[in-house]
């Protein structure tokens, strides 16, 4: 039943269409350009974009830049890049709330003329005291009953720069006894002599979020203004502003605010303050460090827009607050890449394997399927030589029970190549194995030989034709046993092993042609992505996105 499987927002939209309140669904993503976007924002972006698409409507990209601060321009660019990368195509040009400052000013004047707004001279501290508490009603300001004429003049003087920051505000005249504190004459304009990144010094009064946001929505014809749960108590004010400024006549009409639960990931740091500290303490290298969950970091790590979309769809849209496990996101990227990427051989912790009876200097090219589960991906040629590298853990001098890989006397399959039997090994003066020796059986070429059975299959890379590269492995930056935050002092519980840099890895030569953000499976080792920051042409660095083993089951 399609109606039942619809989420609560779709059900609201259906009703609005049925009642005739909504002709064309228009949604928006309204970030404040004051930081990088993270996985939670991805949910909001894909939700708003997805609804517009589903209903044949329109999705607006609007910067909510009504609060001027210094660091903004850089964030406008990074946010645009993130939204584009996620594939959320917005309608027309990017929009800026600051373009509506004239409409907002006019709306404020309209409220004053209706006797619904007044200029207040109380200080910020006094306004806070007068506001009251949940159990105590607020107290009216002595300036509350100024005449319309006086208010109009004072507000104009505020705009002209006659007053210093903090000396006067414009407040909506609603109800100081309202049980909802947001309705106790909220401030809607303040004086701030600040330079705005787009409007420069044109304005020295700026609208407050609760006044600006509904007008931005109304000006753009947004029908469904989707935000997170903490704004639920602000909805009566949202409707009040839209109605009193003349954009609608009742709460049932559009635009209307709809709240949903934020996306939280268990044991993952998302707070800006904490990420800033990780950056400042040098624990991570910037906002796009592959261990973080900013959209830029997820992209750099190797997550795809498709995997993120699958993830937010699996999580669903609800009003119930909860926290989702990170392994669910890992599940999604494995699912997405499984049939899409080539399965290559890469040795991360190498030890040399010498085939004593293989001709010196010979290079044989083995025909290898690019993806055994997806024959359409074709085959490639992988060079095979007398000296190879194999994983150090694929050889043991004295194997425990059930160890089927290389040990003296044992025969294994070199994936896609030959069966080899271990004959000997060499150690250095510290007792570390530096070379394993074996002989091969030419009869077994291709690895599909059925004449006898071997239990172990290991991967390899030619020591002379393969290439050396850097590979980075990651774990959670948080110590999962202890949880994100230390309960005593609020500090973070950091996992000291969250990043491992391997500089001596050997890769199939074809991998040297990989470019930024190319993704592969390295057989037995996981999924990997070419780092988009530190790689150089012909010198890719690989990030492990995720291992092959999963703890998550759908
Ligand atoms: P801050 O005010 O600290 O920047 P913010 O990131 O919530 O916090 P916005 O930039 O205004 O602020 O966010 C843009 C949009 O993303 C908003 O509509 C917000 O509701 C949504 N959003 C933010 N965090 C999440 C989250 N964890 N899950 C889902 N949506 C989110
Ligand atoms: Mg933000
Ligand atoms: Mg915000």
UniProtKB/TrEMBL annotation:
Gene3D superfamilies: Glutamyl-trna Synthetase, Domain 2, Glutamyl-tRNA Synthetase, Domain 3, HUPs, Ribosomal Protein L25, Chain P. Keywords: Aminoacyl-tRNA synthetase, ATP-binding, Cytoplasm, Ligase, Nucleotide-binding, Protein biosynthesis. The keyword Nucleus does not apply. Residues 342-441 form the Glutamyl/glutaminyl-tRNA synthetase class Ib anti-codon binding domain. L-glutamine binds at residues 64, 209. PROSITE patterns: AA_TRNA_LIGASE_I. PANTHER family: GLUTAMATE--TRNA LIGASE, GLUTAMINE-TRNA LIGASE. HAMAP family: Gln_tRNA_synth. This is Glutamine--tRNA ligase. It comes from Lachnospira eligens (strain ATCC 27750 / DSM 3376 / VPI C15-48 / C15-B4) (Eubacterium eligens). The gene is glnS.
């Amino acid at each position: 039943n399609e109606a039942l499987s619809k989420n609560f927002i779709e059900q609201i939209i259906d009703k609005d269409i049925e009642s005739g309140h909504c002709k064309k669904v228009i949604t928006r993503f309204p970030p404040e350009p004051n930081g990088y976007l993270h996985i939670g924002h991805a949910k909001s972006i894909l939700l708003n974009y997805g609804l517009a698409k589903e209903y044949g409507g329109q999705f607006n990209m609007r910067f909510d830049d009504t609060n001027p601060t210094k660091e903004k321009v850089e964030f406008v660019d990074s946010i645009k890049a993130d939204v584009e990368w996620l594939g959320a195509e917005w309608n027309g040009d990017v929009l800026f709330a600051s373009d509506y400052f004239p409409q907002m000013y006019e709306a404020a004047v309209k409220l004053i003329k209706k006797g619904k707004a007044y200029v207040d001279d109380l200080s910020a501290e006094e306004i806070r005291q007068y506001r009251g508490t949940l159990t105590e009603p607020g107290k009216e300001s002595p300036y509350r009953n100024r005449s319309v004429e006086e208010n109009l003049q004072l507000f104009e003087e505020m705009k002209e720069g006659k007053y210093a920051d903090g000396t006067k505000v414009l407040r909506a005249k609603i109800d100081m006894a309202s049980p909802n504190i947001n309705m106790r004459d909220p401030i809607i304009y303040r004086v701030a002599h600040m330079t705005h990144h787009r409007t420069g010094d044109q304005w020295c009064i700026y609208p407050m979020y609760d006044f600006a946001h509904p007008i931005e929505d109304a000006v753009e014809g947004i029908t469904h203004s989707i935000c997170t749960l903490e704004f639920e108590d602000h909805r009566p004010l949202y409707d009040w502003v839209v109605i009193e400024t003349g954009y609608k006549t009742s709460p049932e009409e559009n635009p209307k605010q709809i709240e949903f639960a934020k996306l939280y990931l268990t044991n993952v740091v998302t707070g800006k303050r904490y990420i800033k500290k990780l950056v400042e303490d040098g624990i991570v290298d910037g906002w796009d460090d592959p261990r973080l969950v900013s959209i830029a970091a997820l992209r750099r790590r190797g997550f795809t827009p498709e995997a993120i979309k699958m993830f937010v769809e699996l999580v669903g849209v609800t009003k119930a607050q909860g926290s989702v496990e990170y392994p669910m996101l890992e599940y999604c990227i494995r699912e997405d890449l499984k049939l899409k990427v080539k399965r290559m051989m890469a040795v991360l912790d190498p030890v040399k394997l010498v085939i004593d009876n293989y001709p010196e200097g010979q290079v044989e090219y083995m025909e290898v399927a690019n993806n055994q589960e997806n024959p359409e991906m074709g085959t490639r040629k992988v060079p095979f030589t007398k000296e190879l590298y194999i994983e150090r853990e694929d050889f043991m001098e004295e194997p425990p029970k059930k160890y089927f890989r290389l040990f003296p006397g044992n025969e294994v399959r070199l994936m896609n190549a030959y069966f080899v039997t271990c004959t000997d090994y060499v150690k250095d003066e510290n007792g570390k194995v530096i070379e394993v020796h074996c002989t091969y059986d030419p009869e077994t070429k291709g690895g599909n030989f059925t004449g006898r059975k071997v239990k172990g299959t290991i991967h390899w890379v030619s020591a002379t034709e393969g290439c050396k590269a850097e590979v980075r492995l990651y774990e959670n930056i948080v110590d999962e046993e202890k949880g994100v935050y230390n309960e005593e002092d609020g500090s973070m519980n950091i996992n000291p092993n969250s990043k491992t840099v391997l500089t001596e890895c050997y890769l199939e030569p074809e991998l040297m042609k990989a470019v930024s953000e190319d993704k592969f499976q390295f057989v037995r080792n996981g999924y990997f992505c070419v780092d988009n920051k530190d790689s150089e042409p012909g010198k890719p660095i690989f990030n492990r996105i995720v291992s092959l083993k999963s703890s998550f089951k759908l």
